[in-house]
Write a structure and sequence with these properties.
alpha+beta, Rossmann fold, four-stranded mixed beta sheet, 3 helices, globular
């Protein structure tokens, strides 16, 4: 597709490595659920600072409905996080929206990713 020269992986901890700047898109795939909201917000501030003027962050994750019990397989992922992380959770869209807004993002959209149980949240800095 002619974009290989514009794609790169950064080795190291997402919390410690220098991101650089002017990214059009930063992918956060199955990552935020490992951490508590404050830790997520700190990371999202760093992501926000690394984006180009009209950039976005794309989060792919298990996102339960606002009732936190549907759909069942996605909601059950909260139990996995309860048992396998110190403070992680499967966050609802409104919880993710709050984290992204607190980090400076102005708009968030959720998109289904059939046939997977995941959703994508696209968060814009404009």
């Amino acid at each position: 597709m002619g974009v290989a020269d514009r794609y790169r992986l950064l080795k190291g901890s997402a919390f410690d490595v220098e991101y650089g700047s002017d990214y059009d898109i930063i992918l956060l795939t199955n990552f935020l659920h490992h951490f508590d909201p404050d830790t997520c917000e700190n990371l999202l501030r760093k992501v926000y600072a690394a984006l180009a003027e009209k950039g976005c962050a794309v989060t792919v994750d298990f996102i339960p409905n606002e009732d936190r019990v549907t759909p069942p397989a996605t909601a059950a992922f909260s139990l996995t996080m309860l048992g396998s992380t110190p403070k992680g959770d499967a966050y609802t869209f409104s919880e993710l929206q709050r984290m992204f807004t607190n980090a400076g993002f102005t708009r968030n959209e959720m998109h289904e990713l059939p046939p997977t149980p995941n959703q994508a949240v696209v968060s814009y800095n404009y």
